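[Amino acid chain]
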Amino acid sequence: MRIRLLWKLLFINVLPVIAVILLVIWFAVDNLASQYFMALMNKYDVPVDDIHQMFLTSIHFYLIWAAVIAVVLAFILSFVLTRKVLRPLSQMTIITREVSAGNYSLRADVRSRDEVGELGEAFNQMADNLEQVEQLRKAMVSDVAHELRTPLTNLRGYLEGLNDGVLPPSPATFAMLQQENLRLVDLVSDLQQLARADAAKAFLKRESLLLSDLVSRLLTLHQLNFHSKKIRVETLFSTQEQNVSADQDKILQALQNLLDNACKYTPRRGWVKITIEPLHKAMKVTFENSGEGIAKKDIPFIFERFFRADRSRSRDGGGAGIGLAITKELIEAHQGRVGAESRDGVTRIWIELPI
């Protein structure tokens, strides 16, 4: 592709320009210069037939050689410059083949700030995103396998013990089997919720809602959970709050995920603060809680599926890492945004919904 494009550009930029210039000069010599030459010859009574022909032959000879030299020089310069311009495109072609083969480490060498340079930067950004997606995909497959392996291994052990007579078929044994089975059911339920969140854009039942009403309803349901950990809950709802057009069930699910996280990761005798405030053509809900916080390097990934900042956490202690991913999908289905920050032992996670 590079060679074909190179030759096309050379043909367009060199040959037509030289040909037009040559024809213009040829016409000027044959018509204007020759007429002026003959007028001079007639003025001084000089025979013009042979001299005129010698004049035209000489001019045509040097004109042809000048055209040849101009074509060669123009070809060399255009070849060098065009090849330099097309080098990033050639690199991107090679890198595209590598990316399609699974190698995401290569990047185009961008040295200019023109349109080709902008294309190279956009291409590198795309390669970065693809590499990140691939890493998250591998991590997700590994996490799903891990989440499934633990309860399945436990179930296998218990069933083999029962079959071999090592474990007695007691209520306690069946309770452990039921617990492991519920862990699998919960994981499958999380995956189903994530799938429904992915398809939320096509199934939104919008209605006018006050976010403060939804948050208050959820706080009432979670009152015992906060009370058991002696967590102090504070709310700050703006008096200028406006209704949002949203699907109530999906927004409730997103808010509940954030409230569950706030309760789960706030230490005993800690605090949680929920703020609702108006923005320009949007309403913002912020969940703020005390605790260990989230590492700065992990903040960009907490809304990714199956991502957990502490990879050693079990599902019982930290979940499968799907809740925030579901929240992100549901909020973005409403053309909203999500965000997070963590510093000085305080974590803030917020959502923005258009009015």
User: Anything to note?
Assistant: The two ends are 50 Å apart (CA to CA).
